[in-house]
Design a protein that fits this description.
- This protein is mostly helical.
- The chain starts with 5 loop residues before the first helix and ends with a helix.
- It is about 75% helix and about 0% strand.
- The longest helix has about 35 residues, at about 90-125.
Length: about 325
């Protein structure tokens, strides 16, 4: 099933807005030169539209099955857009797919595990098994003790790794920078602004819609009979997010993802609002920076910083875009 709730609408607005900026950029002089070089303008636009469509399916998912299917579709659409540049870009895209496919199989394993157990439980309890994979239904199964606490922790770990790969969480981040940097300019701008944030969206779904009851450690403490506060899933996620933030200078997009996750795992209204606001903030300036850099390369024919002095005079609009970004 599919359902647009408030969270999905928020991510949808950012996704469509980023795609609109990239499309407007493609429609200008850059696109004319792209066509003159014999490249397929139609393929670029079509793949960008395909990415928006598959991302929308993902954001509107209301159960684990639709989430997994749309997750895979979004990964393959992103691969096609990355691979369109060919050469080193294709190699980076293949590297990305190795990571993405590995993560998807972890997610699929959990979905299959929950599905088989849930259907069996529905049969034994003589209840309607339709919609058993809805997020609310799975969360209820977790609370009813159909799955043990160790089983829930294992499921949560597998899902966080699977979705964290897409987000570029440590230590699964090495694919991200080359894949976006070597994509065609506007495509890299769009993917860099929103694609990895889909992993954050899926993590939000998992943390708050399914496994919210075990994140803060209270159930773990009562189940295991000792103080578990220092090693709860919440604490571990906060540590990973903080480590992400330390890579700000060298791996900017990855560091920003760390800030977003760090806000969310504070598990309060202020932290969550800050983390979600930064999704919009990052998408805005990341797209602007990518497109401005693409403009500089287009105008000058080089990305060598030693040869790019005086651009404030030659390209004042791009200069202001970079400055504000």
């Amino acid at each position: 099933g599919w359902l647009l709730d408030g969270l999905a609408i928020y991510f949808t607005l950012i996704t469509v807005g980023s795609a609109l900026l990239a499309t407007l950029y493609i429609a200008g002089e850059w696109g004319r030169r792209y066509r003159e070089q014999g490249e397929s303008f139609r393929a670029l636009q079509s793949l960008l539209a395909l990415n928006v469509f598959t991302m929308q399916l993902l954001l509107a998912s209301s159960d684990l099955l639709s989430l997994f299917i749309s997750w895979e579709l979004a990964s393959w659409a992103a691969f096609a857009l990355m691979a369109l540049s060919g050469g080193k870009g294709l190699k980076a895209a293949l590297h990305y797919m190795i990571y993405a496919f590995s993560g998807a199989m972890l997610v699929f394993a959990v979905v299959a595990w929950i599905a088989t157990t849930a259907v069996t439980a529905a049969y034994q309890l003589d209840i309607n098994g339709a919609g058993i994979l809805q997020f609310s239904s799975v969360a209820e199964l977790m609370q009813q003790g159909i799955f043990t606490i160790p089983e829930q922790l294992l499921m949560l770990t597998l899902l966080l790794i699977g979705f964290g790969i897409k987000m570029g969480l440590l230590p699964f981040h090495l694919w991200q920078a080359p894949a976006y940097a070597l994509s065609i300019g506007p495509a890299g701008a769009f993917l860099g602004a929103i694609s990895s944030r889909l992993g954050l969206f899926a993590i939000i779904v998992v943390l708050f819609k399914i496994f919210g009851s075990i994140i803060d450690g209270s159930i773990l403490q009562s189940s295991f009979g000792f103080e578990f506060a220092s090693v709860t899933p919440k604490t571990l996620l906060a540590w990973i997010a903080a480590e992400q933030a330390r890579h700000l200078l060298a791996w900017h997009g990855i560091g920003q993802g760390g800030y977003m996750l760090l806000g969310l795992v504070m598990m309060d209204s202020l932290g969550s609002a800050g983390g979600l606001l930064h999704v919009f903030n990052h998408a805005t300036y990341q797209a602007a920076l990518f497109l401005a850099v693409t403009s500089v390369i287009y105008r000058t024919g080089t990305a060598d910083l030693n040869r790019l002095g005086g651009l404030v005079v030659r390209m004042p609009l791009s200069f202001m875009t970079l400055l504000i970004g």
